[in-house]
Amino acid sequence: MLSTCGTYTDFSNGIVLSAGCSFGRKVNGLAINLFANKYYVANGVELGIQNQAHKVNGLQVGLFNRCVELNGLQIGLWNINEKRKMTLINW
User: Fold this and answer.
1) pTM for the full predicted model
2) For position 29, what pLDDT does the model report?
3) Exposure pattern of 46-65 as b/e (b: 16+ CB <10 Å)?
């Protein structure tokens, strides 16, 4: 999926590219957005300035990363999950 502004999808499988924001219930694959990724479940990689999900199975890379359940890694300036709040790398 490719968008210049942003996307909203219930389910995305594969690659989501956007110059804006991407929202949805579940992403399986790679979500690259200039500003924000906001998904309920993210399986794979989220890459953007701000990444937010309820459950992450994979990797969040951005300035600000937030999730409730993390099974993977967060890399960024400020990372929050159910276990801890850390800078740079959080697991």
Assistant:
1) 0.88
2) 94
3) bbbebbbbeebebbbebebb
CA distance 29 to 42: 8
Q: What is the pLDDT of residues 36-59, one digit of tens each?
A: 999 999 999 999 999 999 999 999
Which region, left, alpha or beta, applies to residue 54 given φ > 0 means left and ψ of -120 to 50 means alpha? Answer: alpha
Is the separation of the CB atoms in 24 and 11 below 8 Å? yes
* For the chain, the helix, strand and coil percentages under 3-state DSSP, each to the nearest 5: 0, 80, 20
Query: Would the pLDDT of 3 be above 80?
Result: no
pLDDT of residue 19 exceeding 80, the answer is: yes
The answer to whether the beta carbons of residues 13 and 28 sit under 8 Å apart is yes
Give the residue ranges of DSSP H helices in the chain: none
How far apart CA 76 and CA 64 sit, in angstroms, is 6
